[in-house]
Task: inverse folding
């Protein structure tokens, strides 16, 4: 009786205390589940196991991770798995999907908040997953409030077909579900497939019907790929060289035994060169390498393949020479002899080192085009720079190249032709048989290979003639704002972005440009800038974007124009990790949730677990309390 009269020991208070303790246990149990998912998904780890029964020795990553957390903390061990209420364990596949759905949507909402009221571009590409289902990746490109150019992976959608109308419908549904209006699109970035670029019924044309200022840009990286492939296929000596290169790399790397022999030969060669002082020593230097096989859709892999053969030329010749004598079958011995003879020819060495130089220049461009923050004006400048370097190599590179090739031939006992001797099979423009070896290799091989590269670059990248890019270049800050032209900037706004500037704002833009011209180019912050991306951030950091808000708006619109679809390609690389051959029955929604969390992990890590618990509770009537 005395206990009941005690306020601190009243029944109501005891019940409330017990309820509070249960709520904390419920939250801890759910938090453990959420944290397990938050760790596994960004690592592309499967949640479920083959056998999750209590008698199983391996119940899958998810349950095993919960068990591990229980071992580390007693309070967690007291509320999870076997010690949890049977109706609220929160480890079922349905619960996992619900939590991942909440988590993924919170990441997308973060991206939506970053976009805000800004105009944006869409980058879209398709690929098949491990189950041969067609998946379409959607990436948003925009400039955030701090002036930083962003490309965010937003969604992957299963599509029944790749008809342009189907793709447009799916993209529109995704955008509208997050209140991203079609009329705010200011750029479209796709590859050159007909269903994408078609002027009448392509995806870009369908979006232009709804938004006439959603300008289409053919992916620069894809154009570079097409240019380099075309240059290799159209020039006969280059085509023959790459065929021989592929055959040699495939033959030597075909078996573990040959690969092991190659590594031994390479180690011996490195040791010899280090002893003679031909190679430097140091941390990370002189590592044993492997052959890189060229891929059909990734041109940079051809450069890697060439680099590996240049570095392992002597070791490769040693392996082939050994196989000529010791090959297990006549076929292997014969093939090894054929490859060895090719590698010991002057022409093969000549083209190998020429392509090594050429592709070192184009590889820089290839890597630049993979950069998310690259703006379209800077991309065009990179193309021009690469073309300029190739022209310089053509005009001034012959002497140094032939000197280097002759040095390699002497070191490897390769017969060199006498450059002044007549070249058999060569004919002059008049049909006379007096072409020399030097003339053949200089003009028919060296110049011709470079000319094909230049021709394809100029044909594929002809955007410098586009009025939009010409006018946009007036905004570039490089060389002390040398390209600044107020008239071109006003024309850019009025002709290409009329919906983004009212008539009154056009008058204000002219006035702002007058002040801008006398202010920004002379400010210390802007003196060494070269790209409009830097200019946009600089205006925001110095708060000059408030004074020149119309100029800042125009810069952001130009920055929004897409350059390449590299981000979508990276998304498909992530898809291969997530939906692997062992997880090929994964549902489309689960794949979409997993991919956005995996790819945008930086945003995912910033989400508070308590907000996920609150959202989980609000989804429906739960059997236990969390508040």
Result:
């Amino acid at each position: 009786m005395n206990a009941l009269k005690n306020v601190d020991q009243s029944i109501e208070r005891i019940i409330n205390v017990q309820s509070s303790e249960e709520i904390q246990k419920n939250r801890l149990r759910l938090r453990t589940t959420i944290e397990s998912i938050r760790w596994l998904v960004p690592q592309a780890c499967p949640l479920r196991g083959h056998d999750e029964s209590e008698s199983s020795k391996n119940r899958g990553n998810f349950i095993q991770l919960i068990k591990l957390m229980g071992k580390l903390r007693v309070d967690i061990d007291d509320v999870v798995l076997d010690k949890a209420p049977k109706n609220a364990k929160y480890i079922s596949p349905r619960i996992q999907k619900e939590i991942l759905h909440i988590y993924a949507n919170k990441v997308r909402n973060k991206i939506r908040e970053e976009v805000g009221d800004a105009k944006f571009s869409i980058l879209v590409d398709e690929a098949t997953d491990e189950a041969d289902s067609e998946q379409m990746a959607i990436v948003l490109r925009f400039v955030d409030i701090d002036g930083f150019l962003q490309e965010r992976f937003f969604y992957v959608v299963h599509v029944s077909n790749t008809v342009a109308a189907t793709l447009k419908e799916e993209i529109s549904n995704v955008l509208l579900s997050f209140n991203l209006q079609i009329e705010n699109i200011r750029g479209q970035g796709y590859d050159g497939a007909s269903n994408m670029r078609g002027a009448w019924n392509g995806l870009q044309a369908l979006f232009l019907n709804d938004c006439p200022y959603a300008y289409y840009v053919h992916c620069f990286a894809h154009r570079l790929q097409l240019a380099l492939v075309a240059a290799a296929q159209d020039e006969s000596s280059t085509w023959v060289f790459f065929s021989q290169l592929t055959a040699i790399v495939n033959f030597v790397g075909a078996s573990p035994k040959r690969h092991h022999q190659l590594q031994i030969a390479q180690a011996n060669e490195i040791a010899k060169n280090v002893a003679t002082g031909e190679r430097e020593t140091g941390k990370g230097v002189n590592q044993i390498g492997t052959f890189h096989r060229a891929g059909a859709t990734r041109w940079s892999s051809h450069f890697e393949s060439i680099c590996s053969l240049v570095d392992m030329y002597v070791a490769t010749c040693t392996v082939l020479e050994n196989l000529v004598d010791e090959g297990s079958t006549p076929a292997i011995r014969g093939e090894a002899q054929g490859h060895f003879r090719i590698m010991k020819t002057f022409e093969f060495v000549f083209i190998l080192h020429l392509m090594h130089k050429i592709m070192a220049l184009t590889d820089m461009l290839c890597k630049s085009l993979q950069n998310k923050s690259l703006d379209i004006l800077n991309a065009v400048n990179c193309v021009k720079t690469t073309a300029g370097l190739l022209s310089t190599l053509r005009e001034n590179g012959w002497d140094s190249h032939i000197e280097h090739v002759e040095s390699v031939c002497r070191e490897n006992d390769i017969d060199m032709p006498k450059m002044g001797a007549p070249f058999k099979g060569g004919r002059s423009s008049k049909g006379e048989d007096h072409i020399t070896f030097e003339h053949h290799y200089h003009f028919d091989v060296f110049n011709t290979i470079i000319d094909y590269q230049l021709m394809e670059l100029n044909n594929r990248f002809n955007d410098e003639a586009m009025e939009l890019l010409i006018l946009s270049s007036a905004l570039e800050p490089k060389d002390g704002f040398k390209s600044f032209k107020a008239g071109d900037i006003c024309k850019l706004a009025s002709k290409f972005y009329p919906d983004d500037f009212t008539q009154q704002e056009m008058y204000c833009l002219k006035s702002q440009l007058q002040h801008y011209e006398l202010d920004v180019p002379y400010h210390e912050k802007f003196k060494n800038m070269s790209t409009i991306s830097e200019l946009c951030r600089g205006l925001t950091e110095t708060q000059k974007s408030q004074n020149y808000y119309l100029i800042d708006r125009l810069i952001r619109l130009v920055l929004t124009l897409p350059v390449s679809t590299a981000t979508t390609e990276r998304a498909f690389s992530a898809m291969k990790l997530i939906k692997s051959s062992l997880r090929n029955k994964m549902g489309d929604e689960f794949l979409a949730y997993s991919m956005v969390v995996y790819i945008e992990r930086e945003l995912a890590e910033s989400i508070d677990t308590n907000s996920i618990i609150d959202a989980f509770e609000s989804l429906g009537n739960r059997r236990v309390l969390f508040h």
In short: The longest helix spans residues 11-40. The beta strands are 120-128, 134-143, 149-158, 185-190, 215-218.
